[in-house]
## 1
Amino acid sequence: MNIKLLASVSKSLLLARWKQTLVAAVGVTFSITMFITLLGFMAGLNTMLDNLILNRTPHIHLYNEIEPSKNQPISRATEFKDNYNFISSIKPKNERQEIYNSSAIYEALLKDDRVLGVAPKVMAQVFYNVGSIDLTGVINGIDVEAENRLFKFSDYITSGQFIDLKNIPNSIILGKGAAEKMMANIGDVIQVTTTKGERIPLKVVGYFQSGIQEIDKVQSYASIVTTQKLLGESNNYITDLQVRLKDLAMAPMMAKEYHQLFEIEAVDIQTANSQFETGSSIRTLISYAVGITLLIVAGFGIYNILNMMIYEKMDSIAILKATGFSGKDVHKIFIAIALSIGIFGGILGLLFGFGLSAIIDQVPFNTASLPTVKTYPIDYNPKFYLIGGIFSIVTTYFAGYFPSKKASKIDPVVIIRGK
Amino acid sequence: MEPKILEAKSIFKSFHTPITIPVLKDINFSINRGDFVSITGKSGCGKSTLLYILSTMDTDYEGDLLIDGISMRGKKEGELAKVRNEKIGFVFQFHYLLNEFSVIKNVMLPGLKLAAMSDKEVEARAYEKLKMLGIENEALKLPNQLSGGQKQRVAIARALINDPLIIMGDEPTGNLDKKNGEIVFNVFKELAEVYHQSLLIVTHDNEFAARTHRIIEMEDGKIIN
């Protein structure tokens, strides 16, 4: 009852100055719109840039590192135990690059509950033969299906079918840069030379573009079997195991565990790509800061307009108090005005923000380095809408609080006698 | 003997800025139900100050004020607002209607605030009061479409909506011409004599005061008669 009455008083005060209130609401709308758009755009961009690396990077990468012996003979000599030894006479020896007992490790990994999937890989150093010159290159022998399932391989194939790699024997998907240099079209046969000097013809079935040019100039993909043949190795020769986890956050801990368990190098994604995390979080921080600044500015607008309204409506407030409205009632009336500006402006802002995001989402964005992206990326995370909505109400509440407090303290005697 | 509805017990008041000046000294009087009382005196004698203390809007005084036998000392702001809403009707020199609301809504506001009746009943009562004052045809207009005398009658209707114990007026005819002033006075007189409504009117118009039932004359913050 009382609330209904206060609401009707608020409404008529609000409508009496509807132009001013509209300006205040537009301020809130504008800031919420920008907040939503900015965050959506920024988050979309962040996700895209992160995916550029994260999608293609195993959460844990298991491989054999060529490294010098940790136990140099001099450190075993008891007479030099307390000395600083800098003689390292044992150089890294020509160790096998393959993972020992790879099939057992592969099975063990697949049985681990925390693991989403494992894609084995064979790396082969080769030369691409173009006329009389040789270009250095790397052929990744992959399990085509696992690679596509875990690392979205097909997203990066700009022409051709990725599955042909499996179906057509002795086939290769060339990096876009490498293919351009070799002037190799799909269906052509190119020659590669392995490090052991063998020359092998491979049929081009597609182009691959990662978005990172340096990689595209060098890397190519073939099936594991083809690569093993190329290297003249048996079919259990695996150089890398790429593990994708269910929970990315567990990678560092599990990498350590695998390192001890399997006695091979295990690198987690956080260590390998720490710069991406930092970049993303700072970009997000900046967009939040800008969005919140906009809202606070809108809050000052509401504060000003309410203050003005209170000066104008001094008489009305005085008479309301004289006829039995308490200070609390007056406070509620003005808070209601502020909140309705905030809610009205906020809802419009959320809608406009969504609209503007949708428009940006349609703007073409073609870049050679990002073959899968056709328009600007937008993240429609409901979290942003929730934060924007809550923030619009909170700011307008505080913007309304102080003017309302002032209105509630107005002494009717002073106003009425002043006439 | 009619019951006392308002009683002032040795009320003192001083203004403290810029220097302490006593404005009311030892005010003692009481008003019974159905009294039509006027307070007169020269400008600055403290009559308006007294009225605002009696109306509970000014709480900065010494002494005690009883309304309907209940002391107003030490009551909280919210409680005093309730007393004003329920027991006191106001008519000011300036009409103080809310221009955002229609005449009928202006009259209804204190009634809606009190919430003793449904909205429909309050509206019916408001029409009744407007009819009594002869302005029921203006009910749906906005206050700024009315003449000065009509506005003041709307203000009286608003004061009456909750059937207050007492109506207080601060120079209610001060802003009106002779004719409208006469109309308003007759309204007060009718309220007092026909409806047995208690009234306390501050005025410096001696002619107005002379026609009330009882005159309280003030000088230099004291009641002299």
## 2
Amino acid sequence: MSRLGKYTRRAFLGLGVAAAGGLAVGYYFYQKPYANPLDAKKAEGETPFNPYVMIDADNTITIIAPRAEMGQGVHTTLAALVAEELEVPLEQVKVEHGPSSPAYFNAALLEDGTPFPFYDESVLAELARGSMKIVAKFLGINATGGSTSTTDAFVKMREAGYAARYVLIKAAEEHFGTTKDNLIVADATITEKSSGKSVTYGELASKAVAISPPTEMKLKKASDWKILGKSQDRVELKDKVTGGRIFGIDMQLPDMLYGTVRMAPRKGVSLKSYDKTAALAIPGVKDVVEIKTATGEGLGIIAENTWAAFQGSQALVIEWDDPLTLQNSDQMWNALETALTKEATFELGGTGSDPEVFASIPEKETLSAQYRVPFLAHATMEPMNATAQHEGDTIYIWTGTQAPGLVQSAVASHFDMDSADIDITTTRLGGGFGRRLEVDFSLYAAVIAKATAPYPVKVTWTREEDTQHDTYRPMAIAEIKGQITPSGTLKTFDMHVASPSIVKSVMARTFPGLSPVGPDNSVLDGAFNQPLDAENQRYQAHVSDLLVPVGFWRSVGNSVNGFFHESFMDEAAHKAGVDPVEFRLAQMTNDEFMPAREVLKRVAEISGWGTPLPAGKGRGVAHVLSFGTWTAQVVQVDVTDETVTIEEVWAVADPGIVLDPGLFKDQIMSGINFGLSQAFGEEITWSDGEVEQANFDTFDAMRMYQAPKITVEVLENSPKMGGAGEPGTPPSTPALANAIFAATGKRIRQMPLSNEIDFI
Amino acid sequence: MYPKQNLTVNGQTKEIEADPEMPLLWALRDILDIKGPKFGCGIAACGACTVMIDGEAVRSCVQPVGDVTGAITTIEGISQGDELHAVQQAWVKHSVPQCGYCQSGQIMAAVALLEEIPDPTDEDISDAMTNLCRCGTYPKIRAAIKDAAQALGA
């Protein structure tokens, strides 16, 4: 396990020396950083400089990358930010997730939740972003999501590296009795030019930590970067090709028991009665315990091994008390249709045009269409799991979580304890995609561990439990009406989206005491904040609670509205009789939309857009701005014998600054395949109050034989830094549907596309 | 109690006492503490649990341990000391893994493929590599397999 993991038992022993709380200088009250959590966790000989850097006497340098590593390469890039300024090669550092602490709050995550488009720099937008940042610090949310990790860390982790280097150089000046002009700093060693003598960072550490940190941060210019801007090997690459024990599911502790859960079909359904006789008769099954929490009710099975626990779970006879209406998918679609006929819940963006404008579009110039997307499961490769142990007054949890702070808060609240007494070790994640922002799997493990105390228990969900107890990407319907003038301009764009609210659902199960304030942007993300000139624009949300837990799914609302918006843009182009790329370029002429135009032009170039294709083949295009990254894609399909093969995908993405081109392109590629996977049949449906799909035989994703050739290019025109993990997903599905239209003339307006056309 | 059984794993003989119906995967992970093979689905649909038995790729999550008599190789057993297997080296060179959870199984499936077909075509790769990867690393897996085939002297 991790180096820090070893020391968790020493937590809060108050071993701290006065470490360089360097980043505090000049800040006031609410902007004062939290105490350095590494002070409490440090072991003998380690010197924590600030929450991100720890240097051992033996010159081992540990960088804390306090974001969940779930495949996006964030540990590598965050470490690179520190290493660049600290003047150490990446190969020389150890990277750890670090403890759960409010010091690692993610302001960018909440910032992106403000109801203003990314490019809107109006006073109001800046004000809202600023106040969100302060809220993030108060709540202490150190979460990983919204493709925000690098934007959040970009300045503060480089400053952490710089601050540590600064005090080390000061210490070296004292050590050699010289000035910094006579010193060379490289590879964690400082050499005196005149004498040629060297001293390592490790040897200077104890002296350096007492030196006052810099009051001014003189960060390197990008042109001087040695590590940033260049592709790096993942810091955990070797573990990932050797079957390393790095995931939550790989936890092994002395005297550990094993368990699984069998939960009610959804939140709101309770445990009425159960018979555990048959389960307890299975050799190896030790106990069955009740789970009653804010996220759900059910039973926990405790056993001597995971297999026995799974069998015990199957043998349970349970009767649920299900008072919920909306038992099947048809009723849920009806509820959304009804919501569309009611007054909107809220409106975002738009041009504020007189409502009469939208009601009086000449019929000949009108284009109307309705689009649908279903519920989707995250289906991470590593099923939900967590290991927990109650020991003394502390609950220890080891799990792959995207939100250790939320886990602390939820577990503390369940047991009426203090968050500080919930000790979380974040492992690497076998996929996250938003699922691991939830607290349920950690909470259930903590509840089961109460029964196994003082021994730890590792609670692993079956795949069936995982698929059927997800917090799903919401299903949604959009009705879009547009006006296309005879000259081919999209003059009016009126979009209504009916969907459950993710924020409402998450808040209700995570912070039952708090009610969300303001609109849930995610319902309209990928629609209201897109580059579009149209003179009259309106974006209205019709929120409808379908009594199904919904959550953040890679690219969130953009995965929904990207499909709606960009499918409609394609239909509008065809109605106008204009090439879809040309049409888009003509509808995004504002100066601030320049990055969108450039990615579209470039993707057209590299994909051979406009060049003739043999019969049965077609290309489709889409552009979505999400998480600050402008992303255009072209998909090429072949349709033979009414069966679609996705042959090739070209993507051009502009995140402003690319810190690691290799990892960035990997994320865009991954986002594309994650998005395209939806088309092949991904759909969560409900029947009699239960999810109909259970395992990969009924909820599958793209396989090797379906995987297209993918080319990714990056541009750096955008004035602000954007994310990597999610922006690849939204344009993929509309580009595919548009390509199928180009090849066949068949317009498919609902996901999964496989309901209307076959795929190989 | 269950009968004692010998398993040969990565060249070593290990004695276990387990329900003969227990899938090999759980015997490896929970009893023998060999964590390379991962649990993904339990129905042989994803391949995260792939190991080799006598050189053939097997999905250990549906293989009753009581029926296993051959030599088991897990990902822990394919490198020679510190030197990674050619397939693992190709995985490093192409920076294949993202979350990495499926990659033990992918690598084992690739090792088995190359033992059977030293110079696989694209179609061979598509046919043999049926393991699921939610990060969608397929293009890189394909490239790495071709590279490994070359390195192994195909």
